[in-house]
Task: inverse folding
């Protein structure tokens, strides 16, 4: 399928999810993530969910990261430049929803993209090759291109992968893993 078709399909599938579905599947995803080979890393980037879009509740993952004494990084989006600025999450971090209902840190201790070792990536859909479909603004492709080549990119999804996304671009950055409620998909990048 094409990205445009996948966006429509997966927005509709998400819309059909109840609050209980979202909470139980988000918890299952967090539990699955415990099996990932990432826990020797220190700097973890995570997104906070856009609730009206029925995104995965990453609060469960946040608790795991905090419990393992990991450095947690959140981003703030600039919709004019389509770039993200990354900040260390501390007890003093103030979170505010922007005009798009994205919870973001107001400010804080900046962290360069190259320092981030693991990125939990939001997505609408993905395929069996690790290609992903987001909302189409390019924020994450830009951000991931600034990260170290060793940075692990981990998608989080309520759903299983599509066979293939047909309109993948050269600059699209593939995932290393994707965690669903039932399994972890590992992508062999060639």
Result:
């Amino acid at each position: 399928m094409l990205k445009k078709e996948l966006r429509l399909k997966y927005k509709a599938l998400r819309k059909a999810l109840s609050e209980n579905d979202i909470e139980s599947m988000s918890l299952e995803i967090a539990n699955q993530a415990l099996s990932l080979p990432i826990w020797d890393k220190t700097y973890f980037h995570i997104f906070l969910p856009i609730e009206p879009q029925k995104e995965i509740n990453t609060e469960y993952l946040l608790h795991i990261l905090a419990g393992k004494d990991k450095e947690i990084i959140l981003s703030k989006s600039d919709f004019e430049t389509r770039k993200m600025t990354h900040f260390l999450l501390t007890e003093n971090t103030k979170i505010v929803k922007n005009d798009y209902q994205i919870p973001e840190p107001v400010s804080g201790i900046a962290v360069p993209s190259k320092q981030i070792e693991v990125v939990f990536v939001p997505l609408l859909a993905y395929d069996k090759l690790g290609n992903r479909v987001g909302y189409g603004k390019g924020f994450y492709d830009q951000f991931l291109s600034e990260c170290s080549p060793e940075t692990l990119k981990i998608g989080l999804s309520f759903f299983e992968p599509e066979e293939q996304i047909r309109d993948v671009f050269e600059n699209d950055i593939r995932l290393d893993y994707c965690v669903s409620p039932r399994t972890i998909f590992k992508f062999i990048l060639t």
